[in-house]
Amino acid sequence: MKIVVCVKQVPEVTTVRVNPETGTLIREGVASILNPFCEYALDLAVRLKAGGTGIDITAVTMGPPQAEAALMRCLELGADRAVLVSDRKFAGADTWATALTLAAVIRRAVPGFDLILVGKQAIDGDTAQVGPEVAEILGLPQIMYGVELTLTPNRRRVRVTRECETGHEVLEARLPALVSASKGEALRRMPSLADVLAARGRPIEKVTAADLDLTEAELGLSGSFTQVVKVFPPAPKEGSRKVEGLEPAAAAREIAAFLRLEGFL
Amino acid sequence: MLKIDLKTCNLCGLCEKSCPFGAIAAGGEAVEVDERCTLCGACVNVCPQAALSIARRKASAEELAGYRGVFVWAECEENAGRLIPRRVVRELITHGRRLADRLGQKLKAVALGDGRMAGLESLCHQGADQVIVCRHDLLGRYSTDGFTTALAAVVAKEKPAVILFGATPDGRDLAPRVAARLRLGLTADCTGLEIDDQGQLVQTRPAFGGNIMASIVTPYTRPQAATVRPNVFPAAAPDPGRPVAIVDFPVTLSKASIRTRVVEEIPAPEQGEKIEEARILVSAGRGCGEASNLDLVRSLARRLGGAMAGSRAIVELGWIPHTLQVGQSGTTVGPDLYVAVGISGAVQHVVGMSSSKKIIAINKDPDAPIFKVADLGIVGDAAAILPKLLAELKTAAA
Lengths: 265, 398
Hints:
The complex is a heterodimer of chains A (265) and B (398). By secondary structure, chain A is of the alpha/beta class. Chain A is built from 6 helices and 15 strands. In chain A, strands 11-10-9-12-8-1-6-7-13 form a 9-stranded mixed beta sheet, with helices on both faces. Chain B has a 7-stranded parallel beta sheet.
């Protein structure tokens, strides 16, 4: 059984700079981590693997060469293979171009895959679009916001407990399918020293634009349907007031006065 | 146009079953497509042989001009046995009306559901020129496959210039599927939508947890698709005098084309008012100290006639269920009053509540980022202040 986990490396701190010419984000020089929701997706895969035999996990990421660090962490946490999709030609890709590239990579690097796991969103862009777009391009059913995942005994279907607005619900889909991971019971684990050492020996496979069955016009900025035309800082709040050093009773009177003034009492 | 590779096609007939317009006939030795085909892509998605493809290219200005009108997906929710449009739909129609007027085009709402749909005329009262209704038994409950097929069919046939989705859980599930099926650009979680001088939709959204704003256009593909978080645009008061126009859009769907099924529902314990719709929210964070102090927060919410919510931190501590979580990975709220009790205000939280009309923040740390968005910031210990505040409000009531 082949599981693909798509992951993304994201900046740890949200200190962002912008390239004034292209309007795209400058990611160099900012400390990076594996996106937490991607880590939960990997955790779901690792739990499946712990509960059954013959399960092979491939972590895939598209990003600059330094995204290798995120893949290294995936190997430490239990992925069997890691694929780095990196090429200058991929730069500036919007969610559509990213999804088209990832789908082509998955077809090529993991033919006959059974399950694709993704994080429900990345904490930098927050679009939550790449997963469903990959599923649509590959013609797969999808279940979003999963927190628990099991396979039916014949491994033909996946059963996912997922968050919904009324609480949780359990959905089933036949495989192959794509599932996105929310927080749930998943953990951001610390790999053991043995895991770290074992991961070091394993190669990271590299995929470039030349390896894919896509034209240059489909890649990166030129393959993107959306274009960033302007980037600017958000407007600061006006009329903000901060009160310090009050006794609790005085603070309470201050709040009550505000509530009365604004008509909430 | 739709291309069929007869060398790889094995005449299995799934494409015929998948077509919402009945435009495909697979029989004998060939697959034939007639003029009813709208290039919605439903068949391409189901073909096990990958024998079907649609050649799409970036369109010229004349082709783009052929796309007219602003569409809003009128997401419905269950309410006392009926399916009625959600509140975010009213917000999108209010703003969509402005966009349509600026373009000099029509505003249409698209409602998908079964026979239980009701209150659709309210969408016209809100500002829509027309409601397009897909009624089908298989649309009675949201499914990615069923809704994608039906909505892509409507969009491919009607060719709007803009389509807007509420960034609700199902909206975020559906919009990227429809966009990918029709090869459309899609912008997530827009907080601003304007029409520029060229008639393009300029979509503004926060990125990096709200640290920067980006304006985005979709130059080559139509419709221009965007999702919008609930509570970002205010809903106007409906005008019952507006004319009502509701038209049916028939689609055929098969049970087999919906590849997920619900096996079990596990509702969270009843929490009363939905936080997304509450007028007043009192929201608790880790700074409340311990779970028992949530009773104070709950009492304050009750006293103010509002609901209780919380930050991701206390959801992770297990103090409240995720359905009450405000923020980026929870619910976006925009009440008249938001009281942040012991919430430091990480950007992920702030993007989920900064459109609240008035914000009060109580926090021990004078440098907590929540104070940047608060109208009234109180530096102090919430656990000490809340009992005094409740007492103060009791006297006020007496």
